[in-house]
Amino acid sequence: MRILAIDVGTGTQDIMIYDTEKELENSIKLVLPSPHLFISQKIREIENDIYFKGEIMGGGKLKKTIQEHMDKGYDVVMHPTCARTIRDNLEQVKSFGIKISENEKEFKDYTKISLGDINITKLSEFLLGYDLEFDFDKIAIAVQDHGYNENMGDRDFRFEKIREKVSKPISPLEFGFVEDIPEYFTRMQAVKRQIKSEGIEDTPLVMDTKFASIAGMCYDEMVEKLNSFVVIDIGNGHTTAASIENGKIQGVFEHHTSSLTGESLERYIKRLASGEITHEEVYNDHGHGAHVLNPISKLEKVIVSGPKRELIEKTNLDWHHAAPGGDVMMTGTVGLVKTILG
After folding, report:
1. In the sheet that 111-115 helps form, which strands lie side by side, from edge to edge?
2. DSSP state letters, 71-124
3. Is the Cβ–Cβ distance between 117 and 187 less than 8 Å?
4. Model confidence over 271-294: pLDDT tens digits?
5. How far apart are the two ends of the chain, measured CA to CA in Å?
6. Rounded distance, CA 66 to CA 41, Å?
7. Where are the domains of the chain?
8. Of the CATH numbers 1.10.10, 2.40.128, 3.30.420, 2.60.120, which one belongs to the domain with range 221-322?
9. What are the residues whose beta carbons fall under 8 Å from the beta carbon of 326, sequence distance 6 or more?
10. What is the pTM of this model?
11. What are residue 234's DSSP bridge partners?
């Protein structure tokens, strides 16, 4: 079986082509700039009004770059679907000075930019340029999705859905969706639509980036020898940790990386392992929250990944940088592959 796994992060998009007939270490791997970064660069190079079409995607620097473009005196119009990249509430999008219109033809003199987290056509052209076969049995995509509820802020809503998922001890692999993506995960739904629009009939597996990484870390060579541990992804924006025993998540907390210090990170990890951490202490510290079902019997080791993982070095914890398949950049893609394989 050949699997295409793409993990779309804030800084990079990490891509793995895995063939079950080969060793994981011999997979084709790519680490490319995250889509919002090269789209932002494209905007900076344009000296014209812009019409945005396409899909919802990870916004990253897009809002700031678009505002800078408008500050130069240019007009910006967005199709209502892709405008939700900026804010799910379109009235808020309009409040930034962005116009909303479905009629692309009305803006024939505007430069057109298409938004989206995935571009399978572009990737296929790149791979075929190296005489690499572009034929897959399964596709798996990871994006971070806060979800959307008009009556609740995204920080609260995202963690509420994590808490609902971890209503009992579960494997990290259970965070993958295929046909059953909830409607409120608008970014995941957009990925599904994009894949279909590019002529791919097979429904992709879609997963949250943080839990794809947590799943992948569990397949690090060292971790497979452990039974009771904490895995933590320290990302550019968010830090997510899960306490794991007997292969199942026993508790989780999520915070904003910029709000963490070595001291506070160590405290949260220890309290997660002991089962003492509370939702209120994390939320009131400007994080997303915490949810614990059970303490773990022993904190054997802390397994860490993510672009800001050096923060763990400011703690006194016994830690290990995860490198499943021998690559610290591929925790998310390995998590996607393992979720596909079950």
Report:
1. 99-100, 76-78, 50-54, 111-115
2. HTT--EEE-HHHHTTT-SSHHHHHHTT-EE-S-GGGGTTSEEEEE-S--HHHHH
3. yes
4. 999 999 999 999 999 999 999 999
5. 13
6. 11
7. 36-115, 221-322
8. 3.30.420
9. 25
10. 0.93
11. 239
